[in-house]
Amino acid sequence: MRVSLFITCLGDIFYSKVGKDTVEVLERLGCEVDFPESQTCCGQPAFNSGYQENAKQVAKNMILAFQHSEYVVAPSGSCISMFHEYPSLFKDEPEWKGRALDLVDKSYEFTQFLVEVLKVENVGASFNGRATYHRSCHMTRLLGVKDAPIALLEKVKGLEIRELPDCQNCCGFGGTFSVKMGPISEQMVDEKVKNIEKTEADVLIGADSGCLMNIGGRINRQGKPIQVLHIAEVLNSGNWE
Fold first, then answer.
1. DSSP letters for 128-172
2. Do residue 98 and residue 171 come from a single domain?
3. Are 143 and 54 within one domain?
4. Is 4 helix (H, G, I), strand (E, B) or coil?
5. Same structural domain, 110 and 129
6. Over the stretch 169-185, which tens digit does the pLDDT of each residue have?
7. What pLDDT does 204 receive?
8. Which label site among 60, 136, 176, 233 has the fewest CB atoms less than 10 Å from its CB?
9. How far is it between the farthest Cα atoms of the chain?
10. What are the tens digits of pLDDT across the range 31-73?
11. Residue range 87-113: average pLDDT?
12. Mean local confidence (pLDDT), 140-145
């Protein structure tokens, strides 16, 4: 099975280890992974800010970048959910709309791909710790991926998962929202950190780097002794031969 890695902007710039861990898990499960170098941003910042024409240009580039891929996998539900907006962007351009639908059909968030396509829940990982899981908004509400991350984490040897209170609440990142609505975003992430503390978890796990950057930044500023990890890092933990 051939998989093309969509690294995403945050993965490329801030979380390169997450990309590495994603590739290593996929390869260990028998996938052949490639990396189309012409990929860029998914266009979500422009799209969410109302610049649809700019978003269309980015979308066309991404469609062409992955046009020959068998599957496209990203360690981000938010960025994959943006692909699902492409058909509406090209509603008046039948050829590009068709290409956009093809991309949607073969694109998956990392945990979604493992569980729904590879039919794997136990990847052989081991991680000793007490953790809680943050459900990111775009991944759960737009992409509809809710159960796959938990199913995978429950099979990690040595990991205790504790339910996060008000897990459905946004962390306050929201891309440009955190920039335009800073004071509101700060209150939202403070609430999220308080709920994480209620679980008495040592580790916060998430599947979207934007959320982890936002929550992790707040945890760091407040001096909380809580480790923040992407789920790919946890699933790639263990003693591999």
1. EEEEEE---HIIIIIS---HHHHHHHTTSEEEEEEPPTTTTS--S
2. no
3. no
4. strand
5. no
6. 999 888 778 878 778 98
7. 98
8. 176
9. 52
10. 999 999 999 999 999 998 999 999 999 999 999 999 999 999 9
11. 98
12. 93
Looking at residue 209, what is its pLDDT? Answer: 92
130 and 108 inside one domain = no
pLDDT at residue 25 greater than cutoff 90: yes
Geometric angle at alpha carbon 233, from 227 and 14, rounded to 5° = 80
Q: How many domains in the chain?
A: 2
Tokens of 31: 């996938």
- Which of these, 59, 30, 55, 58, lies nearest to 118 by C-alpha position? 30
Q: Is residue 73 domain-shared with residue 93, that is, in the same domain?
A: yes
What pLDDT is stored for residue 36 in this prediction?
97
Tokens of 211: 């959320």
Choose the final residue of a domain: 83, 116, 149. Answer: 116
Per-residue 3-state assignment (H helix, E strand, C coil) for 20-61: HHHHHHHHHCCCEEECCCCCCCCCHHHHHCCCHHHHHHHHHH
DSSP 164: P
- Structural domain contains residue 240: no
How far is Cα 79 from Cα 70, in angstroms, rounded to an integer?
A: 18
Same-domain check for residues 109 and 142: no
User: Are 162 and 178 within one domain?
Assistant: yes
Residue 159 belongs to a domain? yes
Asked if 208 contacts 78 with a C-beta cutoff of 8 angstroms, the reply is yes
